[in-house]
Design a protein that fits this description.
The chain is α/β, with parallel strands linked by helices. The chain has six helices and 15 strands. The strands form two sheets. Strands 3, 4, 5, 8, 9, 10, 11, 12 and 13 form a nine-stranded mixed β-sheet that branches. A six-stranded mixed β-sheet has the order 6-2-1-7-15-14, covered by helices on one side. Strand 1, helix 1 and strand 2 form a beta-alpha-beta unit. The structure holds flavin-adenine dinucleotide.
């Protein structure tokens, strides 16, 4: 039986997870090509900059919600069974402010902050907090158990899992999606290309998706330990600023964020914003600076900026024939690429099975 040759373009969390899922199929031969790989830090490469945690935001009935719901079980399994992947459980507090309704961040977190959130039966230990336990200015609060992923460990772990399954990795830059097929390691053109190019799907020939746009996120990585993962739906410093705090697994430090600056391509950290992020984080979780309550008590590892690959209408996971060849798109995962990664990759797998037309073969 002839193998199905597949080229995956992109080594972000979507490309790597998709390559891993496809490589488990007996009859698939997978090559992954990418401009950037784990270990690189670049403004065109979102995945290393993410926190990353599982904070579901998909609206009920959307494909994003379906992908997020499906992804929890696998993140939970990895967390329990494979500590070397760099994921750990975190006690989580989510606070909402009524005044953030309709703001950029309020809209982003509108499902996350609900006290009757759809994911209350997906994740463990969900409970509504009493009003007396809420920080000043907050009107809703929930507590539950989530996960935090150390992306510096998890992305290379995904590479290792892929390599173990026979995936061949190559550095390459393509200017048109149709060029990807010729990079298959067999020397023959691939029968299916998977497009996981994130924000660059906006400018890639054959795709040129103008619904894709950046939402800038600025973070500060510190050595201080918060003891809890927490977020608030907004701030009084601007309707695109938000506060979130998460401690990465296995010594990865604590991420303090952030903002959701839509349409902003700036790659350099803004020092004033960094100061606001640090002070707001301490105000929300005083355990970060227990002696003084001041930002000088924070031990900074680095400042960073990542561009979330947003897409009007949500992530695009669908098949399309381009130049007579099948392409399965998987991009536009905004600020939710980790928490929707496995659900998206399984959807790609189903689309590939439909394309090759012989479900039993993959
Ligand atoms: P990318 O990681 O950007 O990867 C795209 C890949 O395609 C790269 O390898 C690139 O080199 C390659 N590529 C593109 N064009 C070409 C080309 N022409 N030729 C060859 N290769 C190409 N998500 C969560 O789930 N939870 C979080 O807590 C979270 N926090 C975040 C915090 C910040 C500050 C940011 C910025 C993002 C956060 N996200 C979070 C979102 C998450 O990081 C993204 O959704 C995810 O990384 C997108 O992955 P991707 O694989 O689609 O894109």
């Amino acid at each position: 039986m002839a193998p199905t040759d597949i080229v995956v373009v992109g080594a972000g969390v979507l490309g790597l997870t998709t390559a891993l899922v496809l490589s488990k199929s007996r009859n698939a031969r997978v090559t992954l090509i990418s401009k950037h790989m784990p270990g690189d830090y670049d403004i065109e490469y979102a995945s290393p900059w993410a926190g990353a945690n599982y904070f579901p935001v998909g609206k009920p009935g959307t494909s994003l919600q379906r992908f997020e719901k499906a992804t929890w079980a696998e993140l939970d399994r990895i967390c329990r069974e494979l500590p070397e992947a760099g994921i750990h459980y975190q006690d989580t507090a989510i606070y909402g402010r009524a005044k953030d309704e309709g703001s950029a961040t309020g809209e982003w977190f509108s499902e996350l902050v609900r006290e009757d959130a759809w994911f209350r039966d997906v994740i463990p230990n969900f409970r509504v907090l009493p009003k007396s336990a809420l920080p000043s200015g907050c009107t809703t609060g929930t507590a539950w158990t989530s996960v935090c992923i150390n992306t510096a460990i998890y992305l290379p772990w995904l590479v290792g899992q892929c390599v173990k399954n026979g995936v061949v990795f190559k550095r390459a830059i393509i200017t048109h999606i149709s060029d990807a097929a010729s990079h298959h390691h067999s020397g023959n053109p691939a029968s299916v290309t998977i497009n996981c190019t994130g924000l660059l799907a906006r400018t890639l020939g054959g795709v040129m998706d103008d619904k894709v746009y950046p939402a800038r996120g600025q973070i500060v990585l510190v050595r201080n330990e918060p003891g809890i993962m927490a977020t608030v739906s907004g701030t009084d410093d601007g309707d695109d600023e938000v506060t979130y705090i998460m401690q990465r697994a296995v010594g990865g430090g604590t991420i303090l964020g952030g903002c959701l600056q839509q349409g902003n391509w700036e790659s350099q950290p803004d020092p004033n914003l960094a100061q606001r992020i640090m002070q707001r984080s301490i105000d929300l979780v005083p355990a970060l600076a227990p002696k003084t309550g001041k930002t000088t008590e924070l031990s900074v590892i680095r400042h960073g900026v990542g561009l979330r690959p947003m897409r009007e209408g949500g992530p695009r996971v669908e098949a399309e024939k381009i130049g007579g060849k099948w392409v399965v798109h998987c991009y536009g995962h905004g600020g939710y690429g980790y928490q929707s990664s496995y659900g998206s990759a399984w959807e790609v797998e189903n689309l590939v099975k439909d394309i090759v037309g012989e479900k039993a073969r993959l």
